[in-house]
Design brief:
This protein is α/β, with parallel strands linked by helices. The chain folds into 2 domains: 212 residues, 3-Layer(aba) Sandwich (Rossmann fold), CATH 3.40.50; 118 residues, OB fold (Dihydrolipoamide Acetyltransferase, E2P). The strands form 3 sheets. An 8-stranded mixed β-sheet has the order 1-16-17-15-14-11-12-13, sandwiched between helices. Strands 4-3-2-5-6-7-8 form a 7-stranded mixed β-sheet, covered by helices on one side. Strands 9-10 form a two-stranded antiparallel sheet. The protein is globular, with a radius of gyration of 22 Å. Dual-specificity methyltransferase that catalyzes the formation of 5-methyluridine at position 54 (m5U54) in all tRNAs, and that of position 341 (m5U341) in tmRNA (transfer-mRNA). It is an enzyme of class 2 (transferase). It catalyses: uridine(341) in tmRNA + S-adenosyl-L-methionine = 5-methyluridine(341) in tmRNA + S-adenosyl-L-homocysteine + H(+); uridine(54) in tRNA + S-adenosyl-L-methionine = 5-methyluridine(54) in tRNA + S-adenosyl-L-homocysteine + H(+).
Length: 362
């Protein structure tokens, strides 16, 4: 696949290349034709990070080619980022240009926005932050209508909230999500919404329970929990666990038990290799698991976790790396077959793709 470039006129051809690549990877497993979910051509990315580059006495937003930290690409607008980010970029730049307090040793800016219009800006400094900085930052936050997080070595100052609130609609119901600063969230909100609706449809209305591994902030947990009697969900990141618990509470979802364990640790617990204090009071044998949902990191599932999923009648797998997805399916293909698959174009104009498969027992 040739290196993609940002050019909306070539988007359809680039998406077709990705679909062909996914078909090629899943061909050994006799997968059906993938359902393809496209992205907005512009203004699709809800979060982004810029280094600042000093030139002609001023700091400018800058990005760098991979592997080259010395040749900045100076930018004033960023068409792949959300319209809200593009609105905020010149306003923030004007603010730091007018204030030595805000600009002194400022080296990085991060924007986190949502489809529902919420915004948070993180300002990172190579110097301590003091009360004078906080007063100016509070004024800036009020002027821009955003929350601001200031970061310096060993210090973090929050003005407003340290999270944004997103709203995503799945099967006609609006779910509210707290997305914390610094934690992982899906960058393409429109495509994320399509992923959630696909997973909701594929899971279907069930009478058995769901095990979810790598649940993050509850992105999939919330809608999928409405399809089953009970969910046991796991996540290792403490900030993501806290966000997921808040999201469950905010949405009135009370049939989910969330434990802070890695997928590998839960595998050990289900295999009765050793007990875990964080599972105290949870009767794993009381669950009637028929489905497992996994959304692992780019490395995919480790071999033991992959073997664990083999126990389930149905495996719903969302992947950010089709190569490791294919490797995991190769381990499972003797007991499970692909019934449905999909391509979600989370990352237009790049080689990356998000995909999903439903594996059912043969």
């Amino acid at each position: 696949m040739s290196r993609p470039q940002f050019d909306p006129a070539t988007y359809d051809a680039q998406l077709a290349e990705k679909a062909a690549r996914l078909v090629e990877l899943l061909a050994p497993f006799e997968a059906p034709e993938p359902e393809v979910f496209d992205s907005p051509r512009e203004h699709y990315r809800l979060r982004t990070e810029f280094r600042l580059w000093r030139e002609d006495g001023q700091r400018h937003y800058a990005m760098f080619e991979q592997g080259d930290k010395h040749t900045p690409i100076l930018i004033d607008e960023f068409p792949i980022a959300s319209r809200r980010i593009n609105e905020l970029m010149p306003q923030l730049k004007a603010a730091w240009q007018a204030s030595e307090t805000l600009s002194f040793k400022l080296f990085q800016v991060e924007f986190l926005t949502t489809l529902s219009g919420d915004a948070l800006i993180t300002l990172a400094y190579h110097r301590p932050l003091n009360d004078v900085w906080q007063v100016e930052a509070e004024g800036l936050a009020a002027k821009l209508g955003v929350s601001i997080v200031g970061r310096s070595k060993g210090k973090r100052i929050v003005i407003g909230r340290d999270y944004v609130t997103e709203q995503l609609t799945v099967a006609g119901r609006v779910f509210s999500y707290r997305q914390p600063e610094g934690a992982f969230t899906q960058p393409n909100g429109e495509v994320c919404q399509k992923m959630l609706n696909w997973a909701y449809d594929v899971l279907g209305e069930r009478t058995d329970d769901l095990l979810e591994l790598y649940c993050g902030n509850g992105n999939f947990t919330l809608p999928l929990a409405t399809r089953v009697p009970k969910v046991l969900a796991t996540e290792i990141s403490k900030s993501s666990v806290n966000a997921a618990l808040a999201n469950l509470d905010d949405n009135g979802i009370d049939n989910v038990t969330l434990v802070r364990l890695s997928a590998e640790e839960l595998t050990q617990a289900l295999n009765e290799v050793r007990p875990f204090r964080r599972l105290a009071g949870i009767d794993l044998k009381s669950y009637n698991f028929g489905n497992v949902f996994v959304d692992p990191p780019r490395a995919g599932m480790d071999p033991d976790t992959c073997e664990l999923t083999r126990r389930f009648e149905r495996i719903l797998y969302i992947s950010c790396n089709p190569e490791t997805l294919a490797a995991n399916i190769a381990q499972l293909q003797d007991t499970h077959r692909i019934e449905r698959c999909a391509l979600f174009d989370q990352f237009p104009y790049t080689h990356h793709m998000e995909s999903g498969v439903l594996l059912v027992r043969r």
